[in-house]
Structure formats: C-alpha cells, structure tokens
Amino acid sequence: MNTSSHSSDEEFRGRLVALEEEVALLRQEKQQLRAGWDGEKRRTRDLEKRLVNAEAANTSLQRRVEAFCEAKNVLENEVDDFDVYHSECPIAMSFLCSSTRKSWS
C-alpha cells in the first residue's frame, strides 16, 4: 500500500467515525426531545382535565347560587307579606307575638 492510499483510507475512516458520533448524538438529542414532548403532552392533558373539572364545578356552583337567589326571593316575599299583614292587622299580630313568646318560654 502506498502512503496516499493509506492516508485517504485513514481520512475516510476518520470521517466515518465522526459521522457515527454525530448520528449517536442526534439520536440522543431526539430521545431527549421526545421525552420532553411526551412530558408536555401529559402536562397539557392534565391541565385540560383540570379545566373540565373546574368548569363542571363552576356550573354546579352557579346552579346553587341561582337556587339560593330563588330561595332568598321567596323569603323576601314572605317577609313582605308578613309586614303587610302586620300593618293591616295589628291586633292579630299582638296576639300572634304574645302566643309565640309564651311557646318560646
């Protein structure tokens, strides 16, 4: 073998080793990127689940608030009716109040 053939073989082998090292590094980087991507997908799914749960809880709370507002309106109407009755019928109210006090004692 002559020296020029030997040096070109060495040069070829050197480039081949460098390319193999680069391929190994690229594979490692690809694995790291894929692991990061998988983690982000899991995080996104978890956040979406939390959002769905929060929306469901919000809907439930809104229904409860509406029910409490309706109950408040009913009670306010009853108080108004009571006040009207009291103003129109003071004798009955004094009797009602005195009998109620006796039952509380």
Can you describe what's shown?
With 105 residues, this protein is an all-alpha fold. It has one domain. Helix content is 96%, strand content 0%. The longest helix is centred in the middle third of the chain and has 86 residues, at 3-88. It is rod-shaped and about 130 Å long. The mean pLDDT is 87.
In a nutshell, what does this entry contain?
Helices cover 96% and strands 0% of the residues. By secondary structure, it is mainly alpha-helical. It is rod-shaped and about 130 Å long.
List unreliable stretches of 5+ residues.
none
- Helix-and-strand structural type: mainly alpha
Approximate strand percentage: under 5%
Please report the distance between the alpha carbons of the first and last residues: 123 Å
Tally of DSSP β-strands = 0
Shape: rod-shaped
Q: Structurally, how many domains make up the residues? A: 1
Helix count, DSSP H or I runs of 4 or more residues: 2
Q: What Rg is obtained from the alpha carbons, in whole angstroms?
A: 42 Å
Helical percentage: over 70%
Sketch the topology as an H/E string, one letter per element. HH
**Mean pLDDT across every amino acid position:** 87
Q: What about the largest sheet?
A: none
Name the features.
105 residues, mainly alpha
Q: SSE layout and pairings?
A:
Blueprint: H1 3-88, H2 90-104
